[in-house]
Amino acid sequence: MNQEPIAIIGINFRFSQADNPEMFWHLLTNKVDAIKQCNRHLDNSSLKMYGGFIDDIDNFDAAFFNISHDEACLMSPQQRLLLESTWLALEDAGIIPQNIAGSDTSLFVSTGGNNYFSLMNNHHKSRFSATTENNTAMAANRISNYFDFHGASLFIDTACSSSLVAIHQACQSLWLGESSLALAGGANLILADGDFTAFTDGVMIASDGRCKVFDANADGYVQGEGVAMIVLKPLSDALKNGDRIYGQIIATQINHNGKSNTLTSPNLKAQVSLLERVYRQDKINPDTINYLETHAVGTTIGDALELKAIGKVLTKNRPLDNPLKVGSVKTNIGHTENVSGMASLIKTLFCLQSKTLVPNLHFTSPNPAIKFDKFKIKVQNKLEDLDSTNNTLRMAVNAFGFGGTNAHIVIEEAPKLPVGSSEFTVNIFTLSAKSESALLNLAKKYLNFIVNNSDSSLTNLCYSANSKRTQFNYRWCTVIESISELQENLRKIIKQIENKEYVVKKIRKKKKNNRCFSSYL
């Protein structure tokens, strides 16, 4: 490899029926199909529209981001989701936003269509400022402005490959030394039925609302919604800082189809060229890839062409008894379009972490246009543990865009580090938020996490809560000796807050600004 691996140290996302890692992993491992009928108001009320929809897209804590109610109403909901996801991804990475203000942190994001601005115009609610609030460039620039990032701030649109291209650009920024920290992400919401109607007329949407990837009955894709953000830094910096590492990116490449049969048709030669460049240039043996998350959306021709390209490059020297396992997260949550590469990456990271492959849905009869045996490729249709006793696990993610931009990323499991023994007899655990209700919700989230992860390290939990989160005005702390004691104390404070039995003590900060801080005691 010609460059240092890039560590993925923070993740946040929302997909259909999956607002957190636990929900997403449950969805993947239990063969959950998260496609449902749209219950939002549509221009065509008689239209039955199925997709991977996320809930509560109109909820936004504008005050948290110092945004007025009027401004928030004019903002594209995709920009609102990206702001929230960026904060939560940094929090997941253990980075306090104020600590990187003014730094060379770079940002690369994408969003779906600008339906919200059109809707406002249709209902005569558009204002001059709404142009700024919905401008696609602002999807990146608003975030960089709020967090005071001084690195590159780019909006990327290569259609369905956008978020994987964003990750590629983020890695390039780090490898070139343009930034020491980078974020990549995207958001996609379906706020009108225009695209659905057009794609249905173009025979691109599955008739039964299911992505039947690699199946003989595949007849199109299903639209999905989502938002996702990841935080990246060079592996050496992550190890030095003691960051939690989800996985490491060891190679990325992008290219374009050039001239194809049509502007929107995939190109076998270009996809083969891209894959050859990845594995030749970065000196990666294709036989070491344990799993490949494909772009496949459920179209007979496109899916077959993608697997043919993969077979030409990744499996030509592969043993017959060790076929390359493939799948597509779109069978669970639909095609989230410009965020689909991010969904694929996150699924693959979770498979790496758990050393488990998850089943691909709706695969009952193989597409006769795909020569699975000849390509030495197998669709992963069951839950399967991976053996990494002797080798480091490697997986890959593929994407190509509506218009010709292709992307490929290779990731490895996180380095195996020695387990420390720094548990303390007594620990202090603190919570803080911007309001009483936010503190209550945070306490509930921690309680839910502890209930589902009772074997967590108490010391690590306290360290992260105390040192890796922004300290706001409303606070609560407790001294505990065990996870079970923390669980009990969280239940008590939740009940006290809900019953208005808590005590608020005003503490005047001894600084020139003389601001007031409130603490729950």
Search tags:
four-stranded mixed β-sheet, 521 residues, Peroxisomal Thiolase, Chain A, domain 1, alpha/beta, eleven-stranded mixed β-sheet, 20% strand, 19 strands, Alpha-Beta Plaits
Low-confidence stretches: 504-521
Structural class: alpha/beta
At CATH level 3, the topology of the largest domain is Peroxisomal Thiolase, Chain A, domain 1
How would you state the average pLDDT, rounded?
87
Give the CATH level 1 class of the largest domain. Answer: Alpha Beta
Strand content: 15-25%
Give the total of beta strands: 19
| Overall geometry | globular
Output the CATH homologous superfamily of the largest domain: Thiolase/Chalcone synthase
CATH architecture of the largest domain: 3-Layer(aba) Sandwich
Write the SSE topology.
Blueprint: E1 6-15, H1 21-29, E2 36-37, E3 50-51, H2 69-74, H3 77-92, E4 106-111, H4 115-122, H5 128-134, H6 138-147, E5 153-155, H7 162-175, E6 182-188, H8 194-201, E7 226-234, H9 235-241, E8 247-256, H10 268-281, E9 291-293, H11 300-314, E10 324-327, H12 330-333, H13 340-354, E11 356-357, H14 372-375, E12 377-379, E13 384-385, E14 394-400, E15 405-412, E16 427-433, H15 436-452, H16 458-467, E17 474-480, H17 483-498, E18 504-508, E19 516-520
Parallel strand pairs: 4-5, 4-6, 9-10, 9-14, 10-12, 17-19
Antiparallel strand pairs: 1-7, 1-8, 2-3, 6-7, 8-15, 11-13, 14-15, 16-17, 18-19
Helix pairs in contact: 3-6, 7-13, 10-11, 15-17
